[in-house]
Amino acid sequence: MAHKDGIFLMNCWYVAAWSHDLIDGRKLARTLLEVPVVLYRGDSGRVVALDNRCCHRAAPLDLGRIEGDCLRCMYHGMKFDPSGKCIEIPGQERVPPKLGVRSYPVVERDGIVWIWMGDEDQADPAKIVDFPAMRDPAWRGIPDYMHYDANWMLIVDNLSDFAHLAFVHTNTLGGSEEYAYKTKPVAIERLEDGFRVERWHLDSDPPPYHRKVIPNKTDKVDRKNIGHMQIPGMFFLYTTFAPAGSGLKDGNKEGARSYCNCQFMTPETRRSTHFFWNYLHDFDLDDPNIARSLRNSIEEGFMEDKAFIEGQQKLLDADPEFKMLAIGADAALSHFRWVFDERVKAEQQAAKSAAQPMAMPMSQRATA
Amino acid sequence: MAHKDGIFLMNCWYVAAWSHDLIDGRKLARTLLEVPVVLYRGDSGRVVALDNRCCHRAAPLDLGRIEGDCLRCMYHGMKFDPSGKCIEIPGQERVPPKLGVRSYPVVERDGIVWIWMGDEDQADPAKIVDFPAMRDPAWRGIPDYMHYDANWMLIVDNLSDFAHLAFVHTNTLGGSEEYAYKTKPVAIERLEDGFRVERWHLDSDPPPYHRKVIPNKTDKVDRKNIGHMQIPGMFFLYTTFAPAGSGLKDGNKEGARSYCNCQFMTPETRRSTHFFWNYLHDFDLDDPNIARSLRNSIEEGFMEDKAFIEGQQKLLDADPEFKMLAIGADAALSHFRWVFDERVKAEQQAAKSAAQPMAMPMSQRATA
Amino acid sequence: MAHKDGIFLMNCWYVAAWSHDLIDGRKLARTLLEVPVVLYRGDSGRVVALDNRCCHRAAPLDLGRIEGDCLRCMYHGMKFDPSGKCIEIPGQERVPPKLGVRSYPVVERDGIVWIWMGDEDQADPAKIVDFPAMRDPAWRGIPDYMHYDANWMLIVDNLSDFAHLAFVHTNTLGGSEEYAYKTKPVAIERLEDGFRVERWHLDSDPPPYHRKVIPNKTDKVDRKNIGHMQIPGMFFLYTTFAPAGSGLKDGNKEGARSYCNCQFMTPETRRSTHFFWNYLHDFDLDDPNIARSLRNSIEEGFMEDKAFIEGQQKLLDADPEFKMLAIGADAALSHFRWVFDERVKAEQQAAKSAAQPMAMPMSQRATA
Fold first, then answer.
1. Which residues fall within 8 angstroms of residue A263, CB to CB, at 6 or more apart?
2. Do B57 and A323 make contact, defined as CB atoms within 8 angstroms?
3. CATH number of the domain at C131-322, out of 3.90.850.10, 3.90.380.10, 4.10.320.10, 3.40.50.300?
4. Residues C176-186: tens digit of each pLDDT
5. I want to staple A10 with a disulfide (CB 3.0 to 4.6 A). Which of A28, A118, A323, B232 is the partner?
6. Chain C residues whose C-beta sits inside 8 Å of any chain A C-beta
7. What digits encode the pLDDT tens for the residues B303-329?
């Protein structure tokens, strides 16, 4: 994996799948950080993640068969337990004790399957970010997925930057060009693992996606946005709309409607990204069409971004020497890229200092 | 752009588009000489060509918005004037004076948009080749476009070589195998910027494309062809048919019908080409079907060539060590390749001698 | 061809095509061992194989015209005889005596077109493997073809290994998982040019493909399999079914039904393979549906393999550092890969020792 050095942050939890991706015995083949992985739910209910490549002759394990919590390669019948250890070779009595494929720590929580691609010893579930709205019956949403032909950091950039709302999303998520020209970029709170941003719009028109799901579509609203971007690429956005002048800033939540939005970017390769998102709402919970409408509106907005983001990737690929410029509005993304790079460097340094290489697959250990 | 050294001739005018490619506010994304360019017509009517890559974060500018003669990037709202200079950054008072994208000199003439991809200081409109038939009401034609998955020089080779007519185009543009076997290749006039060739066929059958648009389809004709191939890849062909024996060689044009054909090859990349062409005629000008018929016939002929030319490109890609051989019929193309290479070498030499690199994008200057 | 050193075995006969691929004057463009070749049947009936690239300007010769046993390039009319020698250049009296394209020794036998891609002097037809069933009226089958996006050796591996039958082909070609778990891998006979394997199943159910074409579908059978894998990648499988207990092992063939199966793997590139096969039978020869049914059954089985084999290729491409492991069942394929590698090494050594390079195309000789 030497060629991936410095590209990905290895020692952190990534979203690998939604829980519902693994229904009906599906063996999900998904490349994560340029590693082909197979994910499946064993008969006990446990989710397992293994290298999607048999240690024998590189057959894809997603063509295999789930047996209990184990997976059998259906090319020559080798059987692997959830730790990746080979526990049966047809026609052969002795199985070398260290033979197997690499398994990856997995935690399933609130409908999300988290995976740890780095050093197994550091895979502490306590480090998994908590997003309580996903399990709170006071919130409702539809988890969704998109695939981007672009480096995940270009999506992080996009989400880090409120300036683009005015230009890209005027007719979907909302954003005012007029406002963009006359205001300074909003200040961010620099954090060690990303940044936090708070933004208020008072006495303004409700944005298109909100207007679609509320009764009084033309009443002015006060709006509060709190965004939080976290390493390696997770964005949480908390939005509250209240009737203009109703005192939201002073804590009065009467007539308020809130949204809770999570977005997870997991690198597939350095040029493509798995994008998981859920836009939850806390009102009219008995009406399933609210969540559907929001899902559609947000996706429409994401598609507007996608054209730019995948366009950027193509142009960067075409000319690797191009250097991006920073403008005033880029404070957030610049900070995020900086703290991310520091983390990657620290990880690299730690790996070099350690006596043993960080991520040696079990199969290689077996033959060493 | 160092990797393109010696591949393209930079300091010359290329056809970038037909004027009609820019109607209805279209922002045309077109890669020229491996540079992504966006072309658009400003509100004043002026055609502008800019790098199709925002200097900020590489967003494609063809997703932008025309404002007057300027173009605004619709990702974060940076606005560029026709010279490429950035004149507005939303939410930021100061715009660095040298910030911007590269603009390319453009001249629109007779329905053709010419572009200069090299050193701006040398972009003299007087160097643009004149093709008066394009503006002369005595001529009528339909400008058209094809895309080739092949290096432009393979198309130049094709057009430089009358020998292929007999084999490739017997049933479309015409050409006689029998004649090909018994005659010597026609002599060319070697020019500094290409070559000129004159060819006569006396008392012969009209070729298929001509036969389709004339009343007396079986009468023998005398035919005069004058071809002119010019650097960097422009071919002009003047053809006159007259009744056999009517004295065309002595200057008698009674009963003569003439064609005027321009073909412009502009490299998209070293492996693909924009091919612009117009086959004009000077007779029966009130019948629009003549131009349509000719357009179809010529395109049919080009498609016959395309199979060979794109086949050559694939075979050359598969084995970069293959060396082409020259035969007697290759005098024209050999001369053309030679004068072209000399021009490229001279350009390279001049660039090396100059104190400043030739083609430094404005955006890089801004950050230097 | 230096970059192909050590990849392919050059000095051996490969299957280039079935005879029926060349009906109706077809000029078959087929890449063999990464060399673009054109195959055609001349008017005399003789099959000719030439480089599918004109020595003049790299035009594809499969766009050419068969004239007698010669092929004329239809770009500029150069004509090549079956030895590859150029014998006519239109408009040019003198043809350089050594000008031409490379031709490849070809032998057509029993419906198979064999080609020799290596040193012409060593191309001895006596080295062609004989498969008499192809010409014997006591056998009937349908020759067929599949294309694999995988290195040929992965297909050889697959066919070398009976262990996979139980897991991949339970419902098509047959194979019992239960049996696979409790038995040792079958012993092979190591040969200098591959291996031979003999396998018996007594008193067992007929496998699905056999059951489809016999009347007594549930009667137990005794089954004998003899497989023979030969360099460079040819597999012959002789299978006989007889009523259980009828004495097949003692030579009694009453009530026996036999199959004769040939499979030829010819590298297209190092990542793709031409796969030729014919599954012949010796019973009910007047019923054409037997051969059709077998063809369908076997193809269904091959498609099961293809998913694994092409999956392996993708995973190997994604991580060139992956090393396969051998298990007990791999004795056959391990031996075959070893004897194959020895042959390639010997060939390399011989080529280095020789004064002249092995495979210099005629066109290069002509210009040297």
1. A159, A234, A235, A236, A237, A275, A276, A277
2. no
3. 3.90.380.10
4. 777 777 777 77
5. A118
6. 157, 161, 163-164, 166-168, 177, 180-181, 183-185, 307-308, 311-312, 314-316, 318-319, 322-325, 327-329
7. 999 999 999 999 999 999 999 988 888
